[in-house]
Amino acid sequence: MSTRVRKNSLTLNDPELTEITGKTRNKGRIEVLTQMGIPFRIRPDGSLVVLKAVIEVELGYAPKETQSAPPRLRIPKARGLLLCQKQ
Predict the structure, then answer these.
(1) What is the number of other CB atoms lying within 10 angstroms of the CB of residue 54?
(2) Which of 28, 55, 77, 86 is deepest in the core (most CB within 10 A)?
(3) What is the pTM of this model?
């Protein structure tokens, strides 16, 4: 197995998972990630997949994407017309 570090990897590698969780085994990592509220997936081979972008957001190093509020339209004259039509 190659131990090269991929600079542009989307996921955390083993040393990074150990650094984040303080655990070297996946059972302990799963417990810590769950307690921290960090989403992860388990591969068929039992290894963990944690996205780097998720870690950055969850630990406060990247802004969470927020949906902008829809524009608020003020049309008081139109409301008055609608109320008059209902009567």
Answers:
(1) 16
(2) 55
(3) 0.62
Residue 49, helix vs strand vs coil: strand
E runs forming strands in the chain: 41-42, 48-49
Q: Render pLDDT for 32-72 as a digit per residue (tens, 0 to 9).
A: 999 999 999 999 999 999 999 999 888 887 666 666 666 66
Q: How many CB atoms lie within 10 A of CB 28?
A: 13
Both tokens of 17, joined, read 């998972």
Q: Which residue has the tokens 């590698």?
A: 13
Side-chain-side CA neighbours of residue 39 (13 Å): 4
Gap between the Cα atoms of 55 and 65, Å rounded: 14
Distance CA 21, CA 55 (A): 11
Q: Could you tell me the two tokens for 57?
A: 């957001």
